[in-house]
Amino acid sequence: TEAAATQHQLPVDPPAAAPERDLMSKFDALIAERQALIDTGVTDPFAIVMEQVKSPTEAVIAGRDTILLGTYNYMGMTFDPDVIQAGKDALDQFGSGTNGSRMLNGTFRDHMEVEQALRDFYGVSGAIVFSTGYMANLGMISTLAGKGDYVILDADSHASIYDGCKQGYAEVVRFRHNDIADLDKRLGRLPKDAGKLVVLEGVYSMLGDVAPLKEMVAVAKKHGAMVLSDEAHSMGFYGPNGRGVYEAQGCEGDVDFIVGTFSKSVGTVGGFCVSNHPKFEAIRLACRPYIFTASLPPSVVATAAVSIRKLQHAHEKRARLWESARTLHAGLKEMGFRLGTETPDSAILAVILEDQTQAVAMWQALLDGGLYVNMARPPATPAGTYLLRCSLCAEHTPEQIQKVLGMFEAAGRAVGVLA
Ligand code: PMP
């Protein structure tokens, strides 16, 4: 009736219920801290722009030629002519994007091809590609471990691993970083018949240290747990076939799932999981971060496929990368810098500094001298450390490494880190 309709009409000028609470106000401390840093006159370490990229190891930053020692371009594949050509061809033949999920219209020829390249590279029966490595961890962990299951993870795990746990509602049990006995103890306390997933990383990206995977995987298996290893920072140069730390340490038969990324050694963007599990394909039917997002553009999967196939035989690149890591580690250690690892264990080399002021001053001095490294600070770093993270590339020349050492020495003296 007309009366009922009038009753349901909204008031013309509804009074506000309560003062609006600004949800952005929780960032005030963060904004103030950042501003205080910038007010000291330094370049913002988290707002660098690559104005030009000339090669895997050189870019123009703030108008200056700069050596790149802070990218995850370990194998230098970003400027490989075959990789670039594959991307151009795919753009011409398939267009710029897929406009859909892998489940629907978003699977093109080269999504299939890159999954085959992964199966060949890892020698496994199953490979699933995700839109990023972050989503591969998010998707795999949340889909494997649900309510009532347990995820047992290293305290220094990557954010994507922690987020995967949250999304799956599994019980999370953390053990001390790389501590085999602690892993054993914590697994021993869990119900025998519960589903358990132990999540490990081959190389931990902040300090560049390597996990004792062989021992940890053995402990996991003793307790009847499945194992997922994130080999993001070892692909291409660890193990006889470049599969990662798990291959180098000889535990290929016991790791159930390997997660990796295209954003590091492969040189583009994307993530994946490979496995020999006979039911692995079922992940595609249940995994939300696989289903509810658009698939990678054809040019990306085409470049990734060629890059992975070339990485399989990149023995010379691998040798050069390790040579540079050894030279840089020895040189910095000799100068008196405090490093994240005693020996050159990976392509990441972390210089540990006292506090934010010293780290930023050193970072700025290096940048002014023409060297870019990654600045890392809590909460991303372990134990509240401030780090300058150097990551090597197979395309760094011995001359560049010597130049880098000279830059570290000059900056270290200028800032007072070195006596
Ligand atoms: N796992 C680890 C260990 C990582 O360090 C990263 C990224 N730095 C990722 C996963 C996520 O990879 P992506 O960049 O492909 O999202």
Automatic annotation (TrEMBL):
It holds the Pfam family Aminotran_1_2. Its cofactor is pyridoxal 5'-phosphate. Residues 65-405 form the Aminotransferase class I/classII large domain. One of its GO terms (molecular function) is pyridoxal phosphate binding. SUPFAM superfamilies: PLP-dependent transferases. InterPro entries: Aminotrans_II_pyridoxalP_BS, Aminotransferase_I/II_large, AON_synthase_class-II, PyrdxlP-dep_Trfase, PyrdxlP-dep_Trfase_major, PyrdxlP-dep_Trfase_small. Signal peptide: none annotated. Keywords: Aminotransferase, Pyridoxal phosphate, Transferase. It comes from the Bacteria. PANTHER family: CLASS II AMINOTRANSFERASE/8-AMINO-7-OXONONANOATE SYNTHASE (PTHR13693), LD36009P (PTHR13693:SF3). Belongs to the class-II pyridoxal-phosphate-dependent aminotransferase family. This is Aminotransferase class I/II-fold pyridoxal phosphate-dependent enzyme.
